[in-house]
Design goal:
Shape: globular
CATH architecture of the largest domain: Alpha-Beta Barrel
CATH topology of the largest domain: TIM Barrel
Helix content: 25-40%
Distance between the termini: 64 Å
CATH superfamily of the largest domain: Glycoside hydrolase, family 3, N-terminal domain
Strand order of the largest sheet: 12-17-16-15-13-14
């Protein structure tokens, strides 16, 4: 265990004094120079071993035992001798209060030992907020994207940034901008959705907010946009290969990268595990150099995913040794190695023979320079170590908690309501007409936040479960809880008798209560070892062969429905599920709450009781049947025709299904009624370019305040290559009081209506169709046509 004491504090003061004395004679410590100038000067002073050391780092400085951080001095020293560019905190279950003093001590010690005073930079993932425990636990990425509220998300990203800063984290491995193309992918909960425009909008705001500059001009937190390029892995498997030519990559997968690179300039990018057209991204020079740097214009640092360079040798068999893999990855364009533990492959380049190879030396120099620029840009050479006092004042402050409450409330998606909701609280409880509520299911009493969240699902410090939120709001005596399956996770083993008994008990609870809220889902826990070897069923490393509810959860739901009890179904996971016709027709109301944050339980109960009006919308389409995908709304016209003409127009899959499921991208219900009228489209001149302007009158025709998302889609009538039936191009979330109307105008520069053809940007002239409405479903849209005669 590392101990922070007075001697350590004196060490920090001495280091600062040494740095100050160096300043006058050392250009790389001159803050008036640019990060590039400082990096070039420092690079010229470094030995070969010092340079190679910057290509990796100590990803897990601490372990964990008994809820407290542990420290292995031997392991740490062995790693940092050869890999000392960045450092990470380690296990998620350790708490910030315990970790910060220990990390401060390590950073000061390392700086004092560094010949040139080159500091670490702390790196961490930041999906739900802090990687480690003790910060504000926001919902998962797909949850917050379901709010469709960009200004609110920017505020959330700022809160996440400030909590990372308070822990000394100045480089995050986020955001993930992969486009959801396969509902079987276990990592979909880390992504924003299936539409490239929506993904790009959210990701760009995340990057801009994280990389905002402080009063000294330093970037607050550097971001890593990832994973270039991924989204269509075979079978939904995380590290699977992909097929697709340059048009598919540039038009379907890369648009979020293009927008973020042009507008937000992320300082780093992570290459994916995937092999594309047979070439692993870690050695795919064409995609990393010609496409990413050339066509898309990325100028930041390119890093590997965890273990990806090693996999070139051990899995893909495209390298004959560790050293061969390292050299090939470096030559292709990888500049930094993310390795979770042990000896990274770039560290093998310390061998003096490589210092005698000019090509390797040049590649290492460029890689180190790029990495040092991030350190200088983020102020690593000047910033003081964060204080425990500042950390305590920042983490979980009231403003952050209120932002969390608001983004959670707007992230819940109501998919069905036959009039049962909102519930009348006066009818619930002792003497009430309805009696009690049965809160059922294996996900009703845990916090299922995703594996990139620090939350232990059973640790009550991370917020209320849905069960506890009901009990807090209505009283313990008003709630009957039953797990409904024999284990906290759906059971796949045994003869099923324990589950049969648990289901029977849940049915009796539902009958006794008169109303059932059943919470089903998938996923459980984070990367801590105690969660790794269980039946997580969702999240990284788990692909779905079946999009039904894992285990015997469907049997639980069917049994309660068979008993005739009015039922509200709540889904809690990072994935979509197939809801069969029986479920859709018999459930009185259906919600998807996605991956939970600490206020998901509270927000759901508020919504069911009518204190909050739901306003979330799907960012990914829910299939109608297992195997009935790809199912994303933006299909190619030829993919939606069917087999042999109009007689079999809907034979896309058997049983006969349409290519446009009812629970489609952009869909979500409200307790009030919105209408859109008087839609208009025009072509206008704005300064030196043309824009398409679409306006519509949005009216709240109901009797309560609500928020609606006005969505704008488009497609050219005829195109050079096949173009989707429609693509999202703008959206706006609008709040209206009952009876009020607002004219909503959405403008799109004509230059944004193009697409890539063999690497060249192409804009079609002629007739365009625009659709404005409340979802991607035909019945929710109004069609408008406009002719674009020329480009501008």
């Amino acid at each position: 265990m590392v101990v922070i004491n007075r001697a350590a504090l004196l060490l920090v003061a001495n280091v600062v004094a040494v740095v100050c004395r160096r300043h006058d004679a050392t250009p790389y410590l001159d803050t008036t120079l640019s990060p590039a100038e400082r990096a070039t000067d420092l690079l010229g002073r470094m030995t070969w071993e010092e340079k190679v050391g910057q290509l990796g780092g100590v990803r897990r400085a601490f372990g964990t035992a008994g809820g407290k951080p542990t420290f292995n001095r031997t392991t740490y020293e062995t790693t940092r001798t050869t890999q000392n560019g960045q450092i990470g905190y380690g296990p998620q279950l350790n708490w910030a209060n315990d970790l910060l003093p220990l990390m401060n001590n390590l950073r000061a010690e390392h700086l004092n030992d560094s010949r040139l005073g080159i500091p670490y930079i702390i790196v961490a993932d930041s999906v739900n907020g802090l990687w480690v425990s003790g910060g504000t636990l926001f919902p998962g990425t797909i949850s917050m994207a379901s709010s469709w509220n960009l200004p609110l998300y920017e505020q959330v990203a700022a809160a996440m940034r400030d909590e990372n800063l308070a822990m000394g984290v100045h480089w995050v491995l986020s955001p993930e901008v992969d486009v959801i193309q396969d509902p079987r992918n276990g990592r979909n909960g880390e992504m924003y959705g299936e539409d490239s425009y929506l993904v790009g909008e959210f990701a760009t705001r995340y990057i801009k907010t994280m990389q905002e500059r402080d009063e000294n001009g330093w970037v607050k937190v550097a971001t890593t946009i990832k994973h270039f390029v991924f989204g269509g892995g075979s079978g939904g498997v995380n590290r699977a290969s992909m097929f697709g030519g340059i048009n598919h990559i540039l038009n379907d997968l890369a648009p979020p990268y293009r927008k973020a690179i042009e507008e937000a300039r992320p300082l780093s990018l992570m290459a994916s595990y995937s092999s594309v057209d047979g070439v692993p991204l870690s050695i795919n020079r064409h995609l990393l150099q010609d496409v990413l740097r050339g066509t898309l214009g990325f100028e930041g640092l390119i890093m590997s995913d965890a273990n990806a360079i090693e996999y070139l040798f051990t899995e893909s068999k495209v390298a004959s040794s560790r050293e061969d893999a390292a050299v090939k990855a470096l030559a292709a364009g990888l500049e930094h190695e993310l390795h979770p533990g042990g000896r990274g492959l770039f560290s093998d380049l310390r061998d003096p023979k490589y210092e005698a190879e000019p090509d390797v030396v040049s590649l290492v120099d460029e890689s180190v320079r790029a990495f040092l620029e991030i350190k200088f840009a983020t102020g690593m050479f000047e910033r003081p170590l964060p204080s425990v006092e500042s950390m305590k004042a920042t983490l979980r402050n009231e403003r952050h908690l209120e932002l969390n409450r608001n983004i959670t409330r707007e992230s819940l998606v109501m998919l069905k309501n036959d009039g049962l909701l909102p519930l009348d609280r006066d009818e619930i409880g002792a003497g009430g007409g309805r009696g009690k509520i049965a809160v059922l299911g294996p996900y009703a009493d845990i916090i299922n936040a995703g594996n990139y969240a620090p939350a232990d699902p059973l640790d009550r410090r991370y917020g209320n479960s849905i069960r506890l939120s009901f009990e807090k709001e209505l009283g313990v005596d008003s709630i009957i809880y039953a797990q409904g399956t024999s284990t906290i996770l759906p059971s796949y083993v045994g003869d099923g008798s324990a589950d049969e008994q648990a289901i029977a008990e849940a049915v009796e609870a539902a009958k006794a209560a008169g109303l059932a809220v059943i919470v089903l889902g998938s996923g459980f826990g984070n990367f801590d070892q105690k969660f790794i070897n269980n039946e997580r069923t969702d999240t990284e490393g788990y692909a779905h062969a079946d999009l039904g509810f894992p285990g015997r959860q469907q049997q639980l739901l069917d049994a309660v429905l068979d008993a005739g009890v009015p039922t509200v179904l709540v889904m809690n996971a990072g994935q979509v599920f197939v809801l069969d016709n029986s479920t859709m027709s018999r459930c009185r109301a259906i919600f998807h709450v996605w991956l939970a944050g600490e206020y998901t339980g509270d927000a759901l109960v508020e919504t069911l009781l009518g204190d909050i009006n739901p306003s979330g919308k799907l960012t990914v389409t829910m299939p109608q049947h297992n195997g009935a995908f790809p199912v994303a709304y933006d299909l190619l016209p030829s993919d939606g025709v069917g087999g042999f003409g109009s007689a079999l127009a809907y034979d896309w899959h058997w049983p006969q299904l349409t290519r446009k499921p009812p629970l489609a991208f952009g869909f979500g219900l409200s307790y009030t009624t919105f209408s859109m009228s008087d839609a208009e489209v025009s072509l206008r001149k704005r300064q030196n370019h043309k824009v398409v302007s679409v306006s519509v009158t949005l009216t709240n025709a109901g009797n309560i305040v609500g928020k609606e998302v006005v969505q704008l889609y488009y497609r050219p009538r005829y195109t050079t290559i096949e173009f989707p039936v429609m693509k999202l191009i703008r959206f706006a979330k609008v709040e209206l009081t009952p009876g009020d109307s607002k004219r909503v105008a959405l403008e799109v520069p004509v230059r944004e209506l193009g697409y890539f053809v063999d690497g060249q940007w192409n804009i079609d002239h002629g007739e365009y169709s625009f659709w404005v409405g409340s979802s991607s479903r035909e019945e929710d849209l109004t069609l408008l046509n406009v002719t674009i005669p020329s480009f501008g």
